[in-house]
Design brief:
With 502 residues, the chain is of the alpha/beta class. The chain is built from 18 helices and 20 strands. The protein has helices at residues 43-50, 73-78, 96-100, 115-128, 144-157, 174-189, 201-207, 230-238, 292-299, 322-327, 337-340, 348-359, 368-382, 398-410, 428-443, 455-461, 484-491, 494-497; strands at residues 5-14, 17-27, 32-36, 58-63, 66-67, 81-84, 162-166, 193-197, 210-215, 218-224, 256-265, 269-277, 281-285, 307-312, 315-316, 330-333, 416-420, 447-451, 464-469, 472-478. It is globular.
Amino acid sequence: MNIDLRMENISIFFGEFQALSDVSIDVKSGEIHGLLGENGAGKSTLMNILAGIYPPSSGRIIIDGETVHGMTVSRAADLGIRFIHQELSVIEDLRVYENLFLSKELTLKNGFLDKKEMAARSAELMRKMNLDINVGDYIRDLDTSRKQLVEIAKAIMFEARLIIMDEPTTSLTNKEIEVLFDLMRNLKKSGVSMIYISHKMPELFSVCDKYTVLRDGRFIQSGEFRTIDEHGMTELMVGRSVVESERSAVTRTDEVVFEVKGLSCGDFFRDVSFSLYKGEVLALTGLFGDGRAELSEALFGARKVTSGTIKKSGAHLPIHDIGSVMRAGVGMVPRSRKERSIFPDLSILNNASMAYLAKNRGAFFADRRDDQRRFGEMVKLMNVRYDHEDNFITSLSGGNQQKVVLARWLETDADIYILDNPTQGIDVGAKFEVYKLINLLTSGGKSVIIFSSEFPEIYRVCDRCVVMYKGVINAVLDRNELTEIKMMYYSTGANLEAGTRE
């Protein structure tokens, strides 16, 4: 079960571009090792080499004291190395248990699949993981967070010695994250090693023993988490001192630019009403299942509502037509980048231009020079790291893909931006860039609605915070009364359960 890993002086080139240069990392048996760095630092590339997806241009992989030559995906699996990728790889049209046993199916003596035994073993794993997922359900019917948990279950279904987790909690609720961390601690006790990639500092400091920091494809430093604080770690990652910008409320005016009244959508949310002011950042928060995800879609015309109205600058917004909403001056960055935002078979440039072209569809042909001009301005503003604009967007790291999605909507020059979990998969340095961008937008008279469940993020950017509970607005907090305790109090409905609505 135990494993000792050393990756020594690993380098790799993609054409003329060097993605990694002499990177080394050591992971001991029963150790949870945090791998940190900004987007594009080379974290996922290094792990893809370890998993046999990419061959290194130079360097060695040493496992239990022996050099592994010609690492492949199947060889890595035989060595007990499992990789939970940042982007979901489950098969939508298969059931949960079929995904768990994919390529390792059990068969009966007559050669037919032993579905009953595979389902039974899958259900037992779910019980051990303390998950209430029905293994007979199709993946397509699961929420994104449940799909992520199935990915994690796949990695531990069969005997693993080392598990690579690339941003495993991006789509998980706080409760599900705690379940995952308990599972990781139990695996650690049994001698399983883990490499944990995340941009969420509290998670890293909570669950990891040691760390390795990469920057621009180079090794920066390794050490123990107990010897460093979050500020010092951030400076190692970005190579400079990071100044955390906080929200200034002076940009908010008394002019209402977006007014929601009595908006309802089946069992998802009901009677939602709020106003957004010019120059304001309004946060919407709560817990999993509170209707925020569906509300964000409804505000942009992507989900049919059963009742209610929306006005923009006093005029009724046709909320059953996304194109009309866009042309009225509303833009949206949706959650779950892979499923809802990127076009994997298109170039970086074309991905960035999609919203602008959709909004201004009067032009019969796309103007490549104009696309390139806008693209150049936006990627400079968002600090997107890329090799060539005509490469597929999938050639970028997850964080840089997210930056392109943000740039896409900035090109529309909307009056109101709906941002649903906009810092998903973005490193700490890039998060601060997004926060500065939000301040820049509102200082220019734009207004922002941000959906987030992270209190530090909400406190840093918002003027007011709407807290939802079971599909209804439970509280609206001004910035001067916003605390993490209050946010959780109203998110959990503690005031309602106690019978005293505040």
